[in-house]
């Protein structure tokens, strides 16, 4: 168990990893397991509602799910002008999955870590001080980068699908600086390619770092509030939790909207 504030903070910010030595191929098991559980939860609820949908007497859950689907579908159609059967479901998945990940930050900061310590000590004889579990996947830079890199792959795929591999390659070498003179175009090709690579790399970076920064800071504030006396925890924790509901929703919405904007730019002529 943590003996002081520093140990308490370090313990709550340490991942449950697949290897104690660390390294590039080390997997954060808590991030992976919680993300996977939330993915199944999201898919299971939507599939259940879709199978049991009723036009005559829709339930509250059905109406709630329909409102989310309608909201996301409207935003996707307004941003992505081209025809695609993939964009709206992709936007819905991004918004709901990231929202659920962010919402884990609203759980009491000691609830899941203490449960993990009890399970580890009771069933596996582990030292509670060395049992870690971070419950907010979007506060893990590895998770946010994985999602943003997935969006980048979609951007490349949409570009090739809309323009062809040759058209996409031509755009990499001829935009943003166009030249009618063949010699000048050849000279500008490396510059254009460098600008295109910077633009392509900036998109996943902006998506990953924005989401990670907001959720990590929110998680850290909850941990710092938990170190205060019990009365102050309620005085500061409740208002921050209410405000944080707006943050977790807004960050999921921003990630979704930026992804749709990037995909829309990918299929448009430069």
Automatic annotation (TrEMBL):
Mode of membrane association: Multi-pass membrane protein
Annotated keywords: ATP synthesis, Cell membrane, CF(0), Hydrogen ion transport, Ion transport, Membrane, Transmembrane, Transmembrane helix, Transport
Keyword hit for Transmembrane helix: yes
Chain's role: Key component of the proton channel; it plays a direct role in the translocation of protons across the membrane.
Family annotation (CDD domains): ATP-synt_Fo_a_6
Family annotation (PROSITE patterns): ATPASE_A
Entry's transmembrane regions: 32-50, 86-103, 115-133, 145-162, 182-202, 214-236, 242-265
Main subcellular location: membrane
Protein name: ATP synthase subunit a
Keyword Transmembrane: yes
Subcellular location: Cell membrane; Membrane
Family membership noted in the UniProt record: Belongs to the ATPase A chain family.
Name of the gene: atpB
SUPFAM superfamilies per UniProt: F1F0 ATP synthase subunit A (SSF81336)
InterPro entries linked: ATP_syn_F0_a_bact/chloroplast, ATP_synth_F0_asu, ATP_synth_F0_asu_AS, F0_ATP_A_sf
């Amino acid at each position: 168990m943590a003996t002081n504030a520093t140990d308490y903070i370090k313990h709550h910010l340490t991942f449950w990893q697949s290897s104690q030595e660390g390294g590039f191929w080390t997997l954060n098991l808590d991030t992976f397991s919680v993300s996977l559980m939330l993915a199944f939860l999201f898919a299971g609820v939507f599939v259940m509602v879709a199978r049991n949908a009723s036009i005559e007497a829709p339930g509250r859950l059905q109406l709630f799910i329909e409102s989310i689907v309608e909201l996301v579908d409207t935003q996707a159609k307004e941003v992505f002008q081209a025809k695609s059967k993939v964009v709206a479901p992709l936007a819905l998945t991004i918004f709901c999955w990231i929202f659920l990940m962010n919402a884990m930050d609203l759980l009491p900061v000691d609830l899941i870590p203490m449960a993990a310590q009890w399970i580890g000590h009771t069933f596996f004889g582990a030292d509670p001080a060395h049992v870690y579990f971070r419950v907010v996947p979007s506060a893990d830079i590895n998770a946010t980068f994985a999602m943003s890199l997935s969006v980048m792959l979609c951007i490349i795929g949409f570009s090739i699908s809309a323009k062809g591999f040759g058209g996409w390659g031509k755009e990499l070498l001829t935009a943003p600086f166009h030249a009618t003179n063949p010699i000048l175009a050849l000279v500008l090709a490396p510059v254009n390619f460098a600008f295109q690579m910077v633009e392509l790399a900036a998109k996943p970076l902006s998506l990953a770092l924005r989401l990670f920064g907001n959720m990590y800071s929110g998680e850290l504030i909850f941990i710092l509030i938990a170190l205060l006396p019990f009365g102050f925890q309620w005085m500061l924790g409740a208002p921050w939790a209410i405000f944080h509901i707006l943050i977790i929703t807004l960050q999921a919405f921003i990630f979704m909207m930026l992804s749709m904007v990037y995909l829309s730019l990918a299929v448009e002529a430069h």
